[in-house]
Amino acid sequence: MPLVTTTEMFKKAYDGGYAIGAFNVNNMEIVQGITEAAKELSAPLILQVSKGARAYANPIYLRKLVEAALEDTGLPICLHLDHGDTFETCKDCIDGGFTSVMIDGSHHSFEDNIAVTKKVVEYAHDHGVVVEAELGRLAGVEDDIKVSAEDSSYTHPEEVEEFVSKTGVDSLAIAIGTSHGAFKFKGEPKLRFDILEEITKKLPGFPIVLHGASSVIPEFVDMINKFGGDMPGAQGVPEEMLRQAARSAVCKINIDSDLRLAMTGTIRKYFAENPSHFDPRQYLKPARSAIKDMVKHKIDVVLGCAGKA
Ligand code: G3H
Ligand code: 13P
Ligand code: ZN
Q: Can you count the helices (H) and strands (E) in the chain?
């Protein structure tokens, strides 16, 4: 099966009350851990690549790794550009075989966000590729740019219809209180489900995307803190809130930080217990297994997309 777009995936997810996991990939062990989990649970998958991942790994390596995953699993897999910053980055990915791109114009004015999104949609649709855009602004760190809580803003429901009809975009990322990274809430976690509901009323049947949706799994934060790390106050989105989102119009849930924490926590533990080891395969193997187990849990318990491939 070739790479797929998100069109079918999102339609089934919307109607079925579940969400597809969109996992960020940066190297072979991350790709393998995620895809082995999806294969065992027969889950559809979005593998996403950020600008930072492209700079780190060289885009051709990531694309070939995803092609290998496709061949190995036979699953419906979408290859998605995460947080595309310009038309040129999106075009490069479309020309390079991606089946979905995000143009993140959330830092632009409403009019400029519409203009750049429309330009990407026209090019993408001409090439059979789907487009995600963003309205509202999440806090946190993406591609080394830190957005403070003061500069973040919830999506305005009154803007979504005009944005979608003027751009022709296929899905919309919204800001309802999640943020990127491992420090999402200062106090009690709170998401604005009322805003999500208003948006859903204005865009019935339209797929919504939730960024910044890692749970910052305490088991891995504790592991990091126990074995020489220092992450006081790390906190993510509670699983019950993600389940609630997955049952609603949210069809795509973005997860990166949980992969990083699983990998780093496991490697820290490994070296604490095996200080003389130096073969990368020895410590990357348990790290890959930890990713696999964590992703299986997400698919099964949080996203609800097991058996939906
Ligand atoms: O939203 C950001 C993703 O976690 C990707 O992070 O830009 O550091 O690769 P990155
Ligand atoms: P997390 O930092 O919560 O994993 O969010 C990832 C994300 O939104 C990627 O676009
Ligand atoms: Zn994001």
A: 12, 10
Q: Is 29 in the pocket of ligand 2 (CB under 6 A)?
A: no
- Establish whether residue 82 lines the binding site of ligand 2, counting it when its CB lies within 6 angstroms of any ligand atom: yes
Tokens standing for residue 89: 């980055």
**Two structure tokens written together for 85:** 């910053």
Q: Active-site residue numbers? A: 82
Residue range 154-171, pLDDT digits in tens:
999 999 999 999 999 999
Give the CA dihedral 242, 245, 247, 248, nearest 10 degrees. Answer: 180
Write out residues in the chain with pLDDT < 50, as ranges: none
Q: What do you get for the CA distance between the two ends of the chain, in Å?
A: 12
**CA separation (Å) from 222 to 148, 218, 271, 274?**
26, 6, 16, 19
In short, whether 104's Cβ falls inside 6 Å of ligand 2 is no
**Cβ neighbours of residue 116 under 8 Å, at least 6 residues apart?**
86, 87, 103, 105, 108
Residue of 25, 102, 172, 180 best suited for mutating to test ligand 2, as the one with most atoms within 8 Å of CB:
180
Domains observed in the chain: 7-216+231-256 (3.20.20.70)
**SS3 assignment, position 273:** helix
Work out the burial of residue 112: count CB atoms within 10 Å of its CB; fewer than 13 is exposed, 13-18 middle, 19 or more buried: exposed
Going from the Cα of 152 to the center of ligand 1, the distance in angstroms, rounded, reads 17
Residues 33-62 have pLDDT tens digits of 999 999 999 999 999 999 999 999 999 999
Residue nearest atom 2 in ligand 1 by C-alpha distance? 142
Neighbours of 164 (CB within 10 A): 20
pLDDT of residue 147: 72
Residue 255 CB less than 6 A away from ligand 2: yes
Question: Which of 231, 256, 258 is the best mutation target for the ligand 2 pocket, counting ligand atoms within 8 Å of the beta carbon and taking the most?
Answer: 256
The pair of three-digit structure tokens given for residue 94, joined into one six-digit string: 């479309």
